[in-house]
Design goal:
By secondary structure, the chain is an alpha+beta fold. It has 3 helices and 3 strands. It is rod-shaped, with a radius of gyration of 30 Å.
């Protein structure tokens, strides 16, 4: 047997002023949550662009590491830009340099090292991709240039 608790007239009248509160609270919170979600998605795009630049720099180095004939900057740059999917505004710069010892002075032309050591050859790739945010943030420049550098000893 179920018993019904009688609802008094005063209890019914007390709730009457609260009608629609949930709708108002939802409207206010949904705006804040939408802005927060948009900011997180916009920030995630920045990491995606940085990851794309790092992968492109590595792709350029992999092309250059195939053989000494591939150490030409134009081929390495083309390989890097192709890895970005020809992203608008992306740039790639390939360089070659030599050192006489690990961590030593970098030379732009092949040096003659003292002590009979052979110069070590390195190739380097820098990929820069512009990032334009969806929203405009105060004190944050727009667009932002995201650059990644990759370097490898090839000989």
């Amino acid at each position: 047997m179920t018993s019904k608790i009688p609802v008094t007239r005063a209890a019914r009248l007390g709730r009457g002023g609260e009608r629609g509160n949930a709708l108002v609270e939802f409207a206010l919170i949904s705006v804040v949550m939408l802005m927060l979600t948009g900011g997180v998605a916009d920030f995630a795009r920045l990491f995606m662009i940085a990851n794309m630049a790092a992968g492109a720099a590595e792709a350029g180095l992999q092309y250059g590491a195939l053989s000494p004939s591939n150490w030409n900057p134009s081929g390495m740059q083309t390989a890097a830009l192709n890895d970005t999917g020809n992203y608008t505004g992306a740039t790639a710069t390939a360089t070659e340099f030599w050192t006489c010892d690990i961590g030593g002075t970098q030379f732009t032309t092949q040096p003659t090292c003292t002590g009979g050591t052979t110069p070590q050859t390195y190739i380097q790739m820098v990929v820069t991709i512009p990032y334009t945010s969806i929203f405009k943030y105060p004190f944050v420049p727009d667009p932002i240039s995201v650059s990644q550098l990759a370097c490898m000893r090839v000989q």
